[in-house]
Each structure stands twice: as structure tokens, then as C-alpha cells.
């Protein structure tokens, strides 16, 4: 049964990828493919989401090849009842516009961050060193970058059996919080 669920999820992600690579409209009864630039599309998405007041969430580091697993993780989190903001971090354009579309189509409470681009633009990271933070080294960079005060760091290939937001209420976590948070 788990294998069947995984197969269905993969087919769903491929389907979303196929329909997300172009916008289709009808004109005179025929399909007309309209393309919009990546920047136009991202501006439209970001206009509707302001997560600046959120103080806790889930952080996941991703790249294009991990999108099926990341998409599955997002659906799994929501199926378990999790409503926290999910931040998807990547470095120097590791996520294509199609991957952005897939993730945003799956969930509106999601934020995609190119941490290397942000750090290079702010002068905190030399452009020549940015690609050194891909893969495993992206995690500490993302933790330093996030504006969230409380973070659960997950890998895209994690399998969860309970909503991880339950951890926010455990006595061990509650007792360890600084008083200024």
C-alpha cells in the first residue's frame, strides 16, 4: 500500500509539472498557450502572501531533483494537520520556475527563498563563494538567514508519522525558550 501511495504521488507531481509549464487559455474554441516571464509569475504569487509577522515554521532545503520528495513532504505535513509556514530554501537558482509553480500550486502557506542570492545582494557573501553553500552546507546558511524565531529543520525526504508542530508544546521545548521570545 505505501508503494501505491508513492506511485500516485509521483504521477500527481508529474501531472502538476506538465500543467504548470505553461498557461492555457481558450480563444475561438482553441487552446492558446500564453507564457509569462518567471519574474511576472513570482510577483503575482508574492503579492498575495505576506508572511513577515509569522515567528515559527518549518525550514526545508531543496533543489530541482528533490521537488517530488519536497512536494510529498508538503502534502504529508498538511495531511497531518500542520499549518505552520514552510520555507523552502535553495541556492543560486537551484529551483526552476516550474519547480516554484509546483510548490506554490500545492500550498499557499509556503515561501521559497534563494538564500545565496539574498546574501550576495546584501554583501554578506562573496558571489564567488555562493555555490559552496549548496547541498548540506545550505542548512546552516538557511538557519542564519531565516527571520523565523522558532524553526523545525526537516529534510525533503523525511517521513513523518505525527504533526511536527506538536514539538512546540512539549515541556522540554517550552522550558528551554528564552524569555524574550
TrEMBL record:
- InterPro entries, per this entry? Alpha_mannosyltransferase, Nucleotide-diphossugar_trans
Provide this UniProt record's keywords sorted from A to Z.
Answer: Glycoprotein, Glycosyltransferase, Membrane, Signal, Signal-anchor, Transferase, Transmembrane, Transmembrane helix
Instruction: Extract the Pfam families matched here.
Output: Mannosyl_trans3
The similarity comment for this entry is:
Belongs to the MNN1/MNT family.
What is the name listed in the Swiss-Prot or TrEMBL entry for this protein?
Nucleotide-diphospho-sugar transferase domain-containing protein
- Recorded GO CC terms: Golgi apparatus; membrane
One GO term under biological process is: protein O-linked glycosylation
* Location, primary (coarse class): membrane
For this protein's source organism, the top of the classification is: Eukaryota, Sar, Stramenopiles, Oomycota, Saprolegniomycetes
Per the UniProt entry, what species is this protein from, by scientific name?
Aphanomyces astaci (Crayfish plague agent)
Amino acid at each position: 500500500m505505501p508503494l501505491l501511495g508513492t506511485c500516485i504521488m509521483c504521477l500527481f507531481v508529474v501531472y502538476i509539472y506538465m500543467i504548470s509549464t505553461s498557461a492555457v487559455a481558450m480563444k475561438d474554441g482553441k487552446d492558446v498557450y500564453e507564457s509569462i516571464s518567471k519574474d511576472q509569475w513570482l510577483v503575482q504569487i508574492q503579492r498575495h502572501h505576506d508572511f513577515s509577522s509569522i515567528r515559527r515554521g518549518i525550514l526545508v532545503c531543496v533543489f530541482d531533483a528533490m521537488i517530488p520528495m519536497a512536494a510529498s513532504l508538503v502534502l504529508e505535513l498538511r495531511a497531518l494537520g500542520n499549518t505552520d509556514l514552510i520555507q523552502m530554501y535553495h541556492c543560486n537558482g537551484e529551483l526552476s520556475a516550474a519547480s516554484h509553480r509546483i510548490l506554490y500550486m500545492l500550498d499557499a502557506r509556503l515561501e521559497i527563498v534563494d538564500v545565496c542570492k539574498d546574501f550576495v545582494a546584501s554583501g554578506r557573501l562573496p558571489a564567488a563563494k555562493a555555490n559552496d553553500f549548496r547541498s548540506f552546507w545550505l542548512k546552516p546558511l538557511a538557519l542564519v538567514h531565516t527571520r523565523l524565531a522558532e524553526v523545525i529543520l526537516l529534510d525533503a525526504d523525511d517521513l513523518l508519522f505525527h504533526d511536527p508542530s506538536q514539538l512546540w508544546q512539549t515541556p522540554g521545548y517550552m522550558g528551554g525558550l528564552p524569555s524574550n521570545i
